[in-house]
Amino acid sequence: MAGTNWVGCASNPREGRVKRSIIAAIIGLACLPLLDVAALAAGQAKPVMVFAAASLKNALDEIEIAWMRETGKKATIVYAASNMLAKQIEAGAPADLFVSADLDWMEYAASTKQIRPESRVNLLGNSLVLIARNDSKIAALSGSPPDLSSLLGSQHLAMGNVDAVPAGKYGKAALETLRQWDGVKDRIAQGESVRAALLLVSRGEAPLGIVYRSDAVADPGVRIVYTFPADSHPAIVYPAALTADSTNSDAPAFLAYLSSPTAKTIFEQQGFVPLSQRLLKS
Asked: Residue 240, SS3?
């Protein structure tokens, strides 16, 4: 029975071929949107996962927006104390980039082979300051360091954890150098990050706190009453590096963008000092 099979649905073989071509074309056109969506989904880059010290939040939030505006790419930034971030990376957290608030925790990440040494760069510097709330009666001081024990009375001095958080370690070193640690060591309110210490002062839960200059700039509720001499503590350096396990092809570009003119301007506005000195490892 000619004409009962698919080809025979047409009145002649040539007509059948034409119909098959039309049907194939219609099916192909119908599939195009699906294919395009699948291709876009397959080709869409994942955001760069950045683990960064808490004190960098305001600056990096602005920089991420600028990078996305310029490139169309995204970064997801996780903020915490550097010690916590280094430990999380060691435990397998999926970070592409680590930005520490001190050299010690970057050295720790390097010693446990969690970073790519050749990518490491000294990104930023900072200053250590004593802050009070804007409505505090404590006057701004210059020259000789303040007598913190007298200023505190029975209240507490807010700091990052002095054994682990970089700002806390810098603060303790400065107080020891200035021979003030023994007078206040029993009245320290220690936070899990420098931003936690900042918040204690901003909320009025502590009259004074030791934070970075960039933190004081970021919070309009506080003001600087004293800047610690640079030689009273180790140099404050923020190193950055790609993680050893990162496979995100956009991660090196974001790391490079952190040293771009746009990023440097934002960092400076937020109280940081751009360094961008690459550390070459043999």
From this structure: strand
Q: With beta carbons less than 8 A apart as the criterion, state whether 51 and 60 touch.
A: no
Sheet (strand 97-99) strand order:
75-80, 48-53, 97-99, 237-242, 121-125, 273-278
Residue-wise pLDDT tens digits, 242-264: 999 999 999 999 999 999 999 99
* Rounded-to-integer distance, Cα 176 and Cα 84, Å: 25
Tokens at 269, concatenated:
């506005």
Angle of helix 103-111 versus helix 166-177 axis, rounded to 10: 130
- Give the whole-angstrom CA distance, residue 88 versus residue 237: 21
Which H or E element spans position 96? none
30 lies in a domain?
no
Report strand pairing: 222-227 vs 237-242.
unpaired
Does pTM top 0.90 for this prediction?
Answer: no
Q: How far apart are CA 249 and CA 260, in angstroms?
A: 18
**Same structural domain, 74 and 199:** no
Contact between 109 and 98 under an 8 Å Cβ cutoff? The reply is: yes
The residue segments making up the domain with residue 59 are 48-125+236-278
Decide: 225 and 110 in contact? Cβ < 8 Å.
no
